[in-house]
From TrEMBL:
Protein's name in the database: NUCB2 protein
Location of the NUCB1-like N-terminal domain: 6-128
Presence of the UniProt keyword Lipid biosynthesis in the record: no
A Pfam entry, by short name: NUCB1_N
One cellular component (GO) term of this entry: membrane
Length: 133
């Protein structure tokens, strides 16, 4: 999504180049629909975000926001599984460990594929900040 510009046109945010860019953008968009979380995000400094302090605010967002985040996480896990399956099919090696492949995706907690928890937000933030440090 873009940000509104002074004359009403939208400016597109640049692609981050991350393979989970769409997931990241969707999570941010959903979190920003919660007034309390949006205020915390706007007042937080970069160290609060990186340290995981902001992730703990996830427990205070509305049920609707949590439900939407859970749905986004399930979609992302399904997308990653499809990528893994495509990789496995291309290699034709059935001896690959599905869980070991999931571990390489550091932007979400693969051990809990159904719900979006503070740990998921923390992992997403750390994955993005690691990429840009």
């Amino acid at each position: 999504k873009g940000e509104a510009h002074g004359d009403g046109e939208k400016i597109e945010n640049p692609d981050t180049g991350l393979y989970y860019d769409e997931y990241l953008r969707q999570v941010i968009d959903v979190l920003e629909t919660d007034k309390h979380f949006r205020e915390k995000l706007q007042t937080a400094d970069i160290e609060e975000i990186k340290s995981g302090k902001l992730s703990r605010e996830l427990d205070l967002v509305s049920h609707h926001v949590r439900t939407r985040l859970d749905e986004l996480k399930r979609q992302e896990v399904a997308r990653l599984r499809m990528l893994i399956k495509a990789k496995m099919d291309s290699v034709q090696d059935t001896g690959l460990d599905h869980q070991a492949l999931l571990k390489q995706f550091e932007h979400l907690n693969h051990q809990n594929p159904d719900t979006f928890e503070p740990k998921d937000l923390d992992m997403l933030i750390k994955a993005v900040s690691t990429r840009y440090n």
